[in-house]
Amino acid sequence: MPQLTLLSAEYKHWLDGRVIPIVIALLPNFGNTEKEKGGETIMGPLAILVCFSCPILVLGLLAFLNKTLRKPILRQREFNARGIRGPPYKFLFGNAREIQKMKTAAAAKPMSNLSHEIRTRLEPHLATWTEAYGKNFVFWMGPEPILVVTEPELVKVVGNDAEKVYQKLESEGYIKKLFGDGLVTSRGEKWAKMRKLVNHAFQGDSLKSMVPAMVASTQVMLQRWEDHVGEEIEVFEEFSLFTAEVISRTAFGSSYFQGKLVFEGITKLLHLATKNAFNIQIPGLSLTCSKVYKSKDEIEAEKLEQQIRDVIIAMVTKREEMVTNGDLDSCGSDFLGLLVKARYEDDESKRISVDDVVDECKTFYLTGHETCNILLTWAMLLLSIHTDWQEEARKEVMTHFGSRTPDADGIMKLKTVRNWYEEYLIIIIIIIIIIIIIIIQIGNCVNISFHFAKKNYFKSLPL
């Protein structure tokens, strides 16, 4: 049994050699299954099976304990030696269960007042551990450490990452189904290629050409609101419809109803991902079990993933049918059109696959929709609370536009409104400003004073 001897030597500093002698001592007991034949001892099938399987089982157990117990403990000691503390590692699940309890408890408490300081509600574990362990700390998702960095200078170092030290993790599970290998999750040359393509789709001139579609969608939404004057409006749901309409029109050249299945599928898939975010997968065992048995959520996620893919493929096929006489320019200059063109690039290094098209569409649908939706809702809340800023914005808008429809050049001259969101993506800035401008221009509105529905609005935010 040379492999057992080698194993004993390798893990001697950890196991102190006690496990291996026990295994070897047990092997003679299997002689009970041996048979005598012609003066020779012949081992029975069970003994042979045990002799071969026992070392494998021991190796597997040691590898499992090494990954889930020994390595995390050694890593935590190393972090502590470097001055980075955090909640102690707990076998197998890390701090996942502790995080779930904190988030459940925080969400169950009603908010005493409307404030934009909701970190303790949405991320109670980060708020608690920042206070307990400092600006930089480490916690555990299963056996994997998560290093939290909040010091601006260190954040800048990680963000710049000139030496490519901080790499993205491999996406898997629900995250893989949501983003595929799109811009959010891809790395290296592929990320650079897709980033260049996306930048081209949303450069300044392209964004300016989207403004009329944004204005049209805003006017449709406000007309719908006028039918509910004096009633409560669930603005989160309203903005969900609105942002879906804007994204469909500006990036994919379709109405909201054509992309409805995509938005609904992604929303449901996002819910499943959030629901299972802190369900720790047991190393080695979970991957094997998932091939034999799938949970109800996993089965539903696979169906949603296929449904989303089918709808996007249908959109791509329809756009490809628009190409006449090999002229790719006829398939459009919006985001979807640029993706379709990239499929047929002469330069193979710039060409993308149909899977890339699907993944980038899913990424844009998800990130564009959710970020704009939540940020718009929050902007309305802050305007409702801080009426002085509301009056400042109103005065500036009326001075520049009066009763005219907002345009891209005029929007960029609004200093007061732009100052609120100068750190966000320009496309989000434009959408928010257009909505604020048009709302402010409604003659019978003295103040923006939205009432959130009786169901606690903040519970509708993804936690």
TrEMBL record:
The keyword Oxidoreductase applies. The chain crosses the membrane at residues 42-65, 424-443. It is a single-pass membrane protein. One of its GO terms (molecular function) is heme binding. Keywords: Heme, Iron, Membrane, Metal-binding, Monooxygenase, Oxidoreductase, Transmembrane, Transmembrane helix. Pfam families: p450. It is found in: Membrane. PANTHER family: CYTOCHROME P450 CYP749A22-LIKE, CYTOCHROME P450 FAMILY MEMBER. Belongs to the cytochrome P450 family. This is Cytochrome P450. It comes from Linum tenue.
